[in-house]
Specification:
The protein is an alpha+beta fold. It has a single domain (4-112), classed as 2-Layer Sandwich (Beta-Lactamase). It has helices spanning 4-8, 36-63, 100-112, and strands at residues 13-19, 25-30, 73-78, 81-86, 89-94. The longest helix is centred in the middle third of the chain and has 28 residues, at 36-63. It is globular. The model is unreliable at 114-122 (pLDDT under 50).
């Protein structure tokens, strides 16, 4: 599992965080000043989107022959920015500077390398 500092050293990554499934902050690091309020909102955003995707993925799995669970990685991109979540960790990325194949590999490893018994987004 990569440290938040190692995640921050990936090209394009400007912030990295680890959050609980219910939107609490475990740890957060950024290259720029980030308020406590912004960090808390980021944690809630990531938890909410993860819960929504888990619900949708479960429904798709039940109604089709495709396996969509457990959740591994999700990504949202808009404007100049992208957020990618794997397990309990997320990275915020300047889209134009990112190698998404590389980031996906790293974030997928975050999803499967969490310690046994640790909370995750399912």
């Amino acid at each position: 599992m990569a440290t938040l500092e190692k995640l921050l050293n990936i090209a394009g990554v400007v912030a990295a965080g680890e959050f609980t499934a219910d939107g609490g902050v475990i740890d957060f690091k950024a290259k720029t000043e980030t308020s406590a309020e912004m960090t808390a909102m980021t944690a809630r955003f990531c938890a909410t989107v993860s819960m929504m995707f888990s619900s949708l993925a479960s429904a798709y799995t039940e109604m089709s022959t495709m396996k969509w669970v457990p959740q591994q990685v999700w990504m949202y991109s808009g404007g100049d920015w992208t957020v990618m979540m794997g397990g309990r960790r997320c990275v915020f990325i300047e889209t134009a500077k990112a190698d998404f194949n590389h980031l996906h590999q790293i974030m997928a490893a975050e999803s499967v390398s969490r310690p046994k018994g640790a909370a995750h987004m399912e």
